[in-house]
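To assess whether the prediction recovers the assembly geometry, we first specified each molecular entity separately, as shown.
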Amino acid sequence: MNKAEDIRFDSKASPRCGPFRIFGRTRVRNSTRSNLQGRGVSSSAPSDSHSDAMPAKIATHDFNIPPWMFWIALLCIVPQALWGAERVDSSLIPSTFAPESAPAHSISQLARFVLSITGMMFVLVAGLLTYAVVRYRRRANDDGMEFVQVYGSGPVEAAWTTVPFLIVVVLSLATARVIQEIQDARKPASALDVQIIGKQWWWEIRYPKLGIVTANELHVPVSQGGRRLPTFLDLRAADVVHSFWVPRLMGKIDLVPNKVNSMWIEPERPGLFLGQCGTYCGTQHAKMLLRVYADTPEEFERWVKQQKGLPENDPAVSAGRLVFERTACINCHAIGGSSATDRRFGRDLTHLMSRDTLASCALSNSPANLRAWIKSPDQFKPGVLMPAMNVSDSDLDQLVAYLTTLK
Amino acid sequence: MNGTINIGEISDVMRPASTASAADEKSILDHIHSWLVSVDHKKLGLMYIMYGLAFLVIAGLQATLMRIQLAAPNLHIISPQTFNRLFTMHGTTMVFFAGMPLIFGFANYLVPLMIGARDLAFPRLNAFGFWLSTFGGLLLYFSYIGGEGLSGAGSAPDVGWFAYAPLTAKAFSKGHSTDYWTLGIMVSGFGSIATATNIITTIFCMRCRGMTLGRMPLLAWLYLIVCAMVLIAVTPLTAAQIMLLLDRFAGSHFFDTQAGGSAVLWMHFFWIFGHPEVYILVIPAFAFASEIIPVFSRKAIFGYPIMVAATCAIAFVSLSVWAHHMFTVGMTSTGNTFFVVSTMMVGVPTGIKIFNWLGTMWGGKLRFSTPMLFAIAFLFQFLIAGLTGIMMACAPWDWQLNDSYFLIAHFHYVLVGAIVFMIFAAIYYWFPKATGRLLNERLGKWHFWLFVLGFHITFDTMFIPGLLGMPRRIYTYEADRGWATLNLICSMGAAFQITGISIWLFNVFRSLRKGKLAGNDPWDAWTLEWSTSSPPPEYNFAEIPTVKSRRPLWDIKHPTDPDWKYE
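The predicted structure of the complete assembly is given in tokenized form:
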């Protein structure tokens, strides 16, 4: 036993590895320590006793910037982020934590449960890490000696394998239950059926049993007063993969070509809920927006009745109608009651004016916007598949006049 | 002493080309030539690393452009087409041309040195693998010029880094940008497979005397596992790329949905590569942490056998979790539940690793040199990455979170918070070994604090718009959704990160000339690479060492109390 060996294990050694020792059978090298008990640390460690330390050590500094400064900076930022400087209508923010429909409620409950468990795990582990960093930092008066070497501890390792395993089992069971609840829900007879067809970059919406075809703005009834009126959505894609996502009503489900997916929503209060395409689908993915109007059953009935009717044939705008039929508009767009009733590439325009928005909810629906949009769609949505038709200004005025009668 | 000797200054050691003296013209050409034709694992390793870092900077700048565009709603600084190319190139570059070369670079440089070998098993295969990866990257970036053919304006791919079919079909992706994407990844994939085979062979066949598998440094163990995963994961990706090329050029219909092909098939192929790929990238970060944390805590790694076992478990389980990327594509409830359970299970061995690093620090004497600062930040950030991963593993919640900014924040916590942080730690730690000079500690701390601050400003904030319904890959967003302030804050964080990286680049170039001389073993470490000179001679060790424990240099430094008595 040489001198350097002696100094390495000072008497501080035993309390420091204490936490591991309470479990017993810790794999600590303690064969030599018994010789060292009682050796004081008060004697200043002589620097010439570093016979087994290596040369070319570099001086290491402790923190230059105290870590608490960083956390304080962070704390200043987060509330600012939460409050936000913007003024927006908070009822329109598509927050996943403000659910208004049955599946979204279950998801948000599961989320809160998982968040609380993972939050506790974070506090525990981050707390231990912080404690270790602060408690075991090398002190300014460090003697430069190597410290007691611990190689592991069976019981400790068994503990931190078992406990996470149990947590994982609990989380898996909770999750499996919500999956069942949502995916395997039985469809009540009163349910409304809707087909959603994703296209680059808009949504075709069909109500097969009601014979309604519309776009981008989905109307559904709310479940009120014990009367369940859920809506079951049939999801398909005409070109590439899209994803139907209205966060306050339900998580997203993809619309995959050659595959039919389904999901259901059941809003509980009337209102407007915003969403958009959730999977990258090409150039204008960002503006493939979506609106869901949850109507009271009576309002919904009114809306259905209005959609089922045909727009009046107003002779005052027959010139505009002629423009529509003569130019390429008619190749893609259907208008009920006109000579174009079965065009499916573009949106069905039969009740264009009953919608609040144009261009997949990217523009509000006004005659001025409609005119500007037809004149140059690319200006609003670069890359959009609807071409600019180069119609003359007078034709454009007549066309817009005609389209604004499609109520 | 145990057959290990320290080699003194070797006069003919090659330095990186950037340090070559400008006065000696012939020597510059000689140097460049010697690098280009080199089969030396150290030179190839450094070339891999420099190449990876160059792409890291390029892809970082692409991310900055995207953050500028997203700083406020309805901005029109960048067109949607350009934005879509930016995120495609950012993702592809970071994963295939920054991440992969960096991890292989460190493997190349360190594995032979740490197991006491003079080179990899197949040096020329190693050079072949490197140059394949390099040309793969160049091929991808050539798409900016050649994507539309010589006559048209160039364009990069805009299909997203996982290129979901049928966006890649001829009908939706005209021109050749997707072909450059496919070929670039395929070519560099062949390089990855070559290098992985090489490293596995080296680890199995070329360990020095006395180095049993149980005495290998954890880094070598973890790289062994990573390379096995590369062989398993990259092959399906290559197969899928070949099928895609057949679709595009030979009229097959694997993924061509217009002709009855399957979009979901591509997803399965891609993610059975894609998820193991995450672990291929993050396990080397674990490897660096498992070397750096013990040295700066002055303690042996806690629970060596269980660290190896946990990594094997991660590798094994990670091969059966891929469809958690596909919870939204409409699987059955049974299918979803299976992937929920398997994904959650990864949390157990991952937790073990975090706890074991904690156990290593517990009761030690922590030295806060720059590598250790990065490693400590890594521990906190990887903890958050893991916990948010558990959140996303809950399939119903994932229906909300998948492809939202929450997901972006989560995987940047893994890819930046864990991997990039540990790559910086590794650079600060092994830079003196590779160049003979230490990086400046003071600049290193500025780099660290700016980067950590910028990282948290950007990515902590980014979780929130995801929870508020913001999907990824949108070039702009509406003002009525309540995401504007949050996005502005995210974008501001980028400025801190760029400043940090600039300081680091300055530090590297300055320290190459003026850095403090390192000596063989500046950190008082314990593995074999520190027993040879800095930089090591071409033959690494004049005499192949013999080891008796996991920490051969501890045994030399403490001859009366060696490790092998206790292992």
